[in-house]
Each structure stands twice: as C-alpha cells, then as structure tokens.
Amino acid sequence: MAGWTADDMPTMEDRTVVVTGANSGLGYEGTKAFAQKGATVVMACRSVDRGERAASEIRHVDGNADLDVRECDLADLDSVAAFAEGVREDYEAVDVLCNNAGVMAIPRQETADGFEMQLGVNHLGHFALTGRLFPALRASDGEARVVTQSSGAHEMGEMDFSDLQSERDYGKWAAYGQSKLANLLFAYELDRRLDDHGIDDVRSVACHPGYADTDLQFRGPREMGSSLRMAGMKVANALFGQSAAQGALPMLYAATADDVLGGEYVGPDGLLEMRGHPEFQQSNEASRDEGDADRLWAVSAELTGVAYDFETATIQH
After folding, report:
1. Active site (annotated) includes residue 176
2. Which of the two ends of the chain, N or C, has the fewest CB atoms closer than 10 A to its terminal CB?
3. Structure-model confidence comparison of residues 22 and 238, the more confident one
4. DSSP secondary structure string, 280-303?
5. Which residues neighbour 49 within 8 Å (Cβ) at sequence distance 6 or greater?
6. Is 207 strand, coil or helix?
7. Of 28, 176, 253, 265, which one is the catalytic site residue?
8. pLDDT at residue 214 in the model
C-alpha cells in the first residue's frame, strides 16, 4: 500500500461506478480516475449544468471517458428516488457506489424533507440512495463496494438522538461532526448487516480524505457572506491542504484495492492523517458503538422511508 496512487488502480473496464458530488473536488478527481481506468461513471450531481461542464473537462483530457451525468439532489428524497430508479432501469448493475458528496459547517437550513441540511445531505440522503441502489449492487457479477466518505471531524461528533435535527441547539461544526460520525456508524452497520445475512458479494467501506483543498471549505463562509472567513480559508487551504486528487486517493483505494475488507477505514498516512497516501486506520470509539449504529439505522429508515431488504435485495416502501 505504501505510496499507492491512482496509477496503481486495477482496470475498471466493464464496471459501473456511481459517484455523488462528481462535478467538483474529491468527486471530480475520483470520477476522472475511474474513467481513466475504463469504468462507466454515473455522475450524480445536484446541478446537471455543473456536472456537464465537469464531464467536458474530463473528456478534454480523456476522449474515451464514459460519463453519464444525472441529477441527484441529496437534499431532496424525491430526487434521490428518481435518480436511483433511472440508474436501475438503465444499468444492469452498479459495481461501486461512492457516497462522496457533502456540505460542511453551513448556517442552519433544512432539506426539502425538513432535515437539518448537514445530516440530511451527508448521511440521510446517502442512506436512502444506498438502499435504493442495493438491488443494483447485488446484481454486480463481481464484488460490489459501497464507499462512504467520512472525515477526521467525526471525532468531534456526538449522536444527539434527542435533538437529531439540531432544532433546539445548532452549532455548525457540531452538526458537521455528527453527520460525519453518522457516516461511519452507517458504513460499519451496513457491513455488519451484510455479514449477518451472509452477503459476501457487497462490501461496505469507509474513508476520509484528510485535509484536501476543495470547494467544500468555502460554502459555509460563502453562505454567511463573510469575506474575512473566505480569505482565511484560502490561506489555510494553501498552507495545509493537499490537492483534491491526492485527497481522493483513500476513496479510490477503498473502492478498488484487492486487500480491502468490509468495515475498513482508509485515510492518508501523513502527519495527523491530514495528507499522504492511503492506509488502513482506526476511527474513534463512538463510531464503533453498535447500539448507536442500530438506533441510527432505525431512525434513518423511518425518516427516509427506505428499508433495506437483505433477503431479496428489493426496496420496501
């Protein structure tokens, strides 16, 4: 694994990969790397226009890139359902699902379904998407993988089931930390449930990018209208951030490397796990709390209306 780069990825020919947030940052770099290895990449984007511009940029570099831009707004469960239905209709299987898109440290707002935005986009939208694409993942003729992007910020997260939507008390960083902890609880619980049902052809893996210089850091200051915070973030990214291409490596490793097992957590190997090449890591104790994971799963199924049927790999409504 030492020094692993995207060049070390195996061929992805005849493989279908779904990437959320594929038009920018980590999703864009991941999409480009998958496509360069021969995959068909379904680019799940909130904005089709931005997605098409990103696809054009990738095709300019790689004229053979097989890219399919589709609308998927994780802040709207109807959009998630329509996207998943379209993918299931048009593709025989999904081999890799990268739950990558996210928002970070934004002023409190709600999704179309009334969820706190960070929890709604980062966790609940991906919970629903994974469930609705589960039959397509089971249909893979190889080993399918679900890769969920978390963050080192999960360590400052706490699952507050008494105020899950932060209606009584909202702190933008606390809500972000909770959403990233939820990502890990989901990834590990999905792995356990797959194992409990004897499903060994789908693996659930988690990853984090370290500190990557992407647009993610700027949405909060932009929505606050704070030019001072924007300037400060630009300086921080320039000093501490690694490139988005480097930050995407843990996701790519988790999605493709032969030695990845279900329930793994992959991140950068450098100082404070902020930069570097992929390695297996350990997330905090809270992320391994099986009681919280089971409770979060039940709440997520209730809130999204998506119940995974591991017996028949169909969606229950």
Report:
1. yes
2. C
3. 22
4. E----GGGG-HHHHHHHHHHHHHH
5. none
6. strand
7. 176
8. 72
